[in-house]
Amino acid sequence: MNDTAKPTAEQQRTRTGLDKDALKRAYLDNLFYLRGRFLEVATTNDLYMAAAYTVRDRMLARWIKSAQTYKDTNARTVCYLSAEFLLGPHLLNNLVNLGITDTARAAGEELELDFEAIVEAEEEPGLGNGGLGRLAACYMDSLATLQIPAIGYGIRYEFGIFDQVIVDGWQSERGDTWLKSGNPWEIPRPKLSFPVGFGGHTEQYTDEHGALRMRWLPSMVVNGMAYDTPIMGYGVGNVNLLRLWKSEAPESFDFQAFNVGDYYGAVHAKMEAETISKVLYPNDEPEAGKALRLKQQYFFVSCSLQDMIRLELNNAGTLAHFHEKFAVQLNDTHPSLAVAELMRLLMDEYLMDWTRAWEITRNACHFTNHTLLPEALETWSVHLFERLLPRHLQIIYEINRRFLDEVRVHFFADEARVARMSIIDESFGRRIRMAHLAAVGSKAVNGVAALHTDLLKSTVMHDFYEMWPEKFHNVTNGVTPRRFIAVSNPRLARLITEACGDDRWLRDLACLKQLEEQAEDHGLQAQWRQVKTAAKQDLANWLGERTGFTPDPQTLFDVQAKRIHEYKRQHLSLLHIVWLYEQIKQNPNVELTPRTFIFGGKAAPGYFMAKLIIKLVNAVGEVINNDPQVSGMLRVVFMPDFNVKNGQRLYPAADLSEQISMAGKEASGTGNMKFSMNGALTIGTLDGANVEIRDEVGHDNFFLFGLTAPEVHQRQAEGYRPWEVYHGNEQLKSAVDLIASGLFSHGDTELFRPLTDNLIHSDPFLVLADFQAYVDCQRQVDRAYRAPHHWDRMSILNTARMGKFSSDRSIQDYAERIWGVAPVPIEA
Ligand code: C3B
């Protein structure tokens, strides 16, 4: 290659070709030149790293071409701002999206490598808590696949979500060290960094045109440095950008402090700056330590907006059309400071007037709400804002003043409504309501499933909906079939491709409809069942190694995997299990379908009740699994450390998917979609996206039970008395009493009291109210599973009718109805 030229096509072909020989050569090269190893002495991590670099090399030319084309065509770009991106392992996903999994496997075989072990060696980046973070990752996959120019912006946490280990039945948290062995997928950009201020004060000054302006003099400045990860579309040339920010001190040593002898003070400042991107906050944590969380939010929002401004100034030379260039999506309220920060940047740094800056801001931003749980609706004390972000507080006050004047005119002289809608909550101390800020500063607001959006419009955002009905949209969530079928369930993917005649379904999930005609076909049913059984065997082996207990794949695998939370009601399932146990003990000949109940999920470290539920799962499992009298009938196992990687083992293996939240509480759910795509039937309430899943798959192919959202509301309004339910239902009472009796706690009658007392006396999520309906519905499941052809047919129909729940459909909805963006195709 001469000094200036890009690699020639021929050089690129041999360097980054997709054929087997090119892969083999590149692999050995990478092992040698990047890891300093040859095959005989390489560790598993070396082997994995070489594989990762080999794959990444094959994405780079497309990545650069995508960026260049997007720039040249000045394409409208989606900027997805999210505090969480729960990506899951990259290697296999990128192989699938590049379309070279089989070739890579064959290359590996010729080099006598253990392909599966190499894939297993990848430590996933756990930069999210659960549904919200994983949704962001699915959306990145779909944006690239649909060839829509997009940048994901977030935080490069040094420690992601904790690793969960089970010690004596209890959850114990271990620090997540995903960066320990290096991250081959990211490219650090030391020169791409932005200053972010905190604290200090503001002052007024007169600019050269005589206009009064504000400036902010922060007392502390940190730098945000970019780390870029390519996000590969499936079967296309488009590779989009995920840009995560790491916080750093502007200089590693404050030389002034150093010179006066304060070496430790200087190092301390550096540490303080680095703290900002140190760790992901687990959900549901109490207030303490939250100042850091606000700092994280402001930090990544500011870096991201400064980066967009840089791009726009490079390209257009002016910010007048910023909102035409970028569609900024705020993933929940975590990035909602973007509204105030964009205003500040435009006015204070780029000297725009209020009206123009507001016009741009309001047209650039869009807001997704992901929950109605009151404790998750973010507010920050005005106090904290004064201390950390004094300029933003001023801007928020001014946004609010103007907004409330509009409210007064719109709802003529309705001061109660003004107080309800105000961005500042004056009721208990003064707090900033971040959802209100986001709604006021955005062009569109959306919920994540039809029911959730309806509830959003009729409850927490009702006033806003009445004022701006046209602003509100529903975009039902979706998940990517690439990761959640092709990557996690290759056997099923092969069978579907065979049955459909081609693999177009991977790009257009509605194609799965073709399977419907064959749902009764006993040949397909037999293959379908084989695929399921093989996945169950894989999971059983894995669980055997990790937990010492190997479930029997011939039993019905009944799975509940999601964050542990009272509203999700893992304890409802536990009551059913305990009830079943009693049935068998009382009558060993009772007719039941043998089942294995599998639970998985993390509890927030500070959430006592959730941790007690994990302990109860394990305690019940210990007794039941060691009772020979129920051995062929009933098993309970807790899968430790549920994350994306372990989820991929679970979804293919489930016969039954538990989606049993109290109606009105689960905004959408996305696990429900992953299970159903993989042929699991759902037992569920009319909550979140369950409603739409049931409508799609057909009411006969879904096990529905429980109170509806309006019924829940009514029950609570009437004054719900759980102790009456408890005393009125003999079977329920004996299940609760058995837990309290000490049978599952070596005689300790206190251990589970907080849980049983809470159910009997308060039961905020109506577990007892739904118990009987749930047990009855589970009986129907039992019967259905004993009719294999019937079950297989339902299972095939579930997969066949999941087209709507591809994240490609969700992104299509956003693109058309909210963002107004078009594809910019890059050829593969
Ligand atoms: C979750 C909700 O709990 C799910 O119902 C929903 O499917 C996903 O978001 C994605 O929309 N959620 C979350 O994981 N974290 C929050 N802070 C709020 C909602």
UniProtKB/TrEMBL annotation:
Source superkingdom: Bacteria
Q: Which cofactor does it need?
A: pyridoxal 5'-phosphate
Against Gene3D superfamilies, the record matches this protein to: Glycogen Phosphorylase B
Q: What is its EC number?
A: 2.4.1.1
InterPro entries registered for this protein in UniProt: Glycg_phsphrylas (IPR011833), Glyco_trans_35 (IPR000811), Pyridoxal_P_attach_site (IPR035090)
Recite the UniProt keywords alphabetically: Carbohydrate metabolism, Glycosyltransferase, Pyridoxal phosphate, Transferase
Which reaction is recorded as catalysed by this protein?
A: [(1->4)-alpha-D-glucosyl](n) + phosphate = [(1->4)-alpha-D-glucosyl](n-1) + alpha-D-glucose 1-phosphate
Q: Which family does it belong to?
A: Belongs to the glycogen phosphorylase family.
Q: What does this protein do?
A: Allosteric enzyme that catalyzes the rate-limiting step in glycogen catabolism, the phosphorolytic cleavage of glycogen to produce glucose-1-phosphate, and plays a central role in maintaining cellular and organismal glucose homeostasis.
> What name goes with this protein?
Alpha-1,4 glucan phosphorylase
Q: Which organism is it from?
A: Thiohalocapsa halophila
Q: Print the organism lineage.
A: Bacteria, Pseudomonadati, Pseudomonadota, Gammaproteobacteria, Chromatiales
